[in-house]
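Quick one, tokens below. Sequence please?
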């Protein structure tokens, strides 16, 4: 009788571990299905956006640095080193005690005045 109880317990343990493994695999597959559905939704949204001409124009401006022929472009560098290099070499700013954003503002005002 004791042998039957031990055998029954071992069988239940094996079955339970198999059930747990199957449940983990099912959860992993559900997660992969969710990720695939999200990817499909993103691709559908991208497909719709590509049909929109203003989206394509914005994409060309941001990624390819395109501009219209009659347009002036101003670059704002977030890196202080680049902002200082431009401020010292190309921009008509002479006061080195100004903060980087003050230099950009001053340059923008001077640029706007040059178009009058």
């Amino acid at each position: 009788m004791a042998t039957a109880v031990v055998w029954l317990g071992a069988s239940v343990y094996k079955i339970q571990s198999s059930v747990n493994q199957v449940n983990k695999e099912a959860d992993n597959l559900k997660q992969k299905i969710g990720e695939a559905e999200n990817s499909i939704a993103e691709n559908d949204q991208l497909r719709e956006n590509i049909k929109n001409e203003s989206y394509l124009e914005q994409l060309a401006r941001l990624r390819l640095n395109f501009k219209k022929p009659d347009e002036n472009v101003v670059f704002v560098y977030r890196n202080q080193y680049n902002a200082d290099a431009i401020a010292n070499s190309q921009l008509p700013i002479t006061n080195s005690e100004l903060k980087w954003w003050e230099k950009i503002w001053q340059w923008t005002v001077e640029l706007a005045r040059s178009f009058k």
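Helices lie at 2-50, 53-64, 80-89, 100-114. DSSP finds four helices and no strands in the chain.
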